[in-house]
Specification:
275 residues, eight-stranded mixed sheet, five-stranded mixed sheet, 15 strands
């Protein structure tokens, strides 16, 4: 990304305010489209990798609003929205993270919007369009959860005493062989933790770690739009957000875990993925 020498960096709070405003408008569009979600469904990477007309309309709205407010910014979106910018700011967008849940009416699908500045995520918002819960964070500014009718509360990760007491979330890819391998790892992991949860949205999984609703989360081959906002929320709530030892986050494994069991959990995942 080329940065204009005259570009003025906006404060992180300003970027977050814009992300929240646009996410709320996008979530309203998603809510209006829920009744007909299953009527216009296509597939992408495999027969189980769905995309709806609402996904595309939602991303179009988000792109229009963000770049309408900040015309020189870059953008990366799941449904094909990508452009270079000149300000050093790039928006990373998932219009509906959890499309399968959206199609089936399961209340866990989110609008995820993050703002990078010179390649570092500085602000992020994840809004569960089904429940109205809004997770927000700025770099160094902490993470918060807002919900309709309730005051915002700061987020802090859980602190399980042992790995055996940790509730773990995960997700699965779309390829048959990939799922078979991931299932084998779950079979080995399950007896060593409290239980496993499959929420169906990487952004909400990361925010669930931040909120202490699960103690750890891992998933393979995440894309930037899957984790940009949620990863910042988890980090700012005190989670250890990392990859396998010596590897970057999401290359190939993304991990977010409570610090009290982080070392043991990462080591266990490393052994299971090496087997």
């Amino acid at each position: 990304m080329q940065t204009s020498p005259d570009a003025v960096r906006p404060p992180d709070a300003e970027l977050l305010d814009l992300a929240v405003e646009v996410a709320q408008e996008a979530a309203a569009l998603v809510a209006r489209g829920r009744a007909t979600a299953a009527e216009q469904v296509d597939v992408k990477s495999s027969p189980v990798d769905m995309v709806t007309a609402v996904d595309r309309a939602c991303e179009e709205l988000i792109v229009g609003r963000l770049l309408g407010a900040r015309a020189g910014d870059g953008l990366l979106g799941e449904e094909g929205g990508e452009r270079a910018g000149s300000t050093g700011v790039r928006w990373v967008v998932d219009p509906i993270d959890g499309t399968t849940n959206f199609v089936y009416g399961l209340p866990a699908y989110a609008v995820s919007i993050a703002a990078e500045v010179d390649g570092t995520v500085r602000a992020g918002a994840v809004l569960n369009a089904a429940t109205g819960e809004l997770y927000t964070a700025t770099l160094g500014g902490g993470a918060r959860l807002s919900a309709p009718g309730r005051e915002p509360v700061p987020l802090t990760v859980g602190a399980p005493a042992t790995l055996e007491q940790a509730l773990v979330a995960t997700g699965f890819g779309y390829g048959t062989e990939q799922r078979r391998a991931q299932g084998a790892i779950v079979a080995e992991l399950l007896p060593q933790v409290r239980d496993i949860r499959r929420i169906g949205s990487a952004a909400l999984d990361l925010c669930s770690v931040a909120a202490g609703r699960v103690d750890a989360y891992y998933e393979q081959h995440l894309n930037p739009w899957d984790h940009a906002a949620g990863g910042l929320v988890a980090t700012e709530a005190g989670a250890v957000v990392t990859g396998l030892p010596g590897r970057p986050f999401a290359e190939p494994l993304g991990i977010a875990v409570a610090p009290s069991v982080a070392e043991e959990f990462v080591a266990l995942l490393a052994r299971l993925h090496a087997a």
